[in-house]
Amino acid sequence: MTGLSTSAIVLKDGHVLRLRAISPADQLALIEMGRRSTGQDLRLRFLRPIRAVEGNLSKRLSQVDQLHDYVRAAFDPLSGKDSEFFGVGRLIHHEDGKPGEFAIMVRSDMQSLGMGHCLMENLLRWAAERGWHHIEGFMLPENLRMMRIVEKCGGLLEPISNAGVIRVLFKLPG
Fold first, then answer.
1. Which of 29, 69, 74, 108 could form a disulfide with 17 if both were Cys (CB 3.0 to 4.6 A apart)?
2. Can you spell out the DSSP letters for 62-95?
3. What CATH number labels 6-131?
4. β-bridge pairing 16-21 and 70-75
């Protein structure tokens, strides 16, 4: 998918991945990323059990408002396949004044390499550069990896009573 701007992230093992925007043509790549993730990792990302990232879900995830939202997929530039995604960071703008909402997923076989942290920093930097004051996300209390990323990046964890989820809030400079 040429023509989409890219940037780089470096993992703990020194591996360099590129980040690029997602487009509707990436629906199959998102389905494959979901297939290569465990049911537990899918549940932690989508806050409920799901069998696969297919159908309406993969279609919705691949259709991004490029003017207001920021969604980047991590891929290996040396593989020659920019449609094999290892992770995705997503930041959705809300028109009603609510904080932008983020979500991150790292493919199960690519976890523990620092990619989630790199994706989170990328989202925070993008939002701050555009003058956003806050971004938020939601996670399950048992998502300890995401909890560590949030704490390292300076986010606040706020349990939501009776909902079984934790609200994550990042206050951005500016």
1. 74
2. H---TTT-EEEEEE-GGGT-TT--SEEEEEE--T
3. 3.40.630.30
4. antiparallel
* Backbone region of residue 59 per phi and psi (left: phi > 0; alpha: psi in -120 to 50; beta: other values): alpha
Sequence ranges of the domains in the chain = 6-131
Q: How far apart are alpha carbons 101 and 93 in whole angstroms?
A: 7
Beta carbons within 8 Å of 166's beta carbon, 6+ residues apart: 138, 139, 140, 141, 147, 157, 158, 159, 160
| Banded pLDDT at 4 (limits 50, 70, 90) | very low
Residue 90: strand pairing partners: 71, 103
> CA-CA distances (angstroms) from residue 50 to 28, 35, 39, 47, 136?
17, 11, 7, 9, 23
How does residue 6 score in pLDDT terms, banded at 50, 70 and 90?
Answer: low
> What tokens does 133 get?
């004051």
Question: Cα–Cα distance between 117 and 89 in angstroms, integer?
Answer: 10
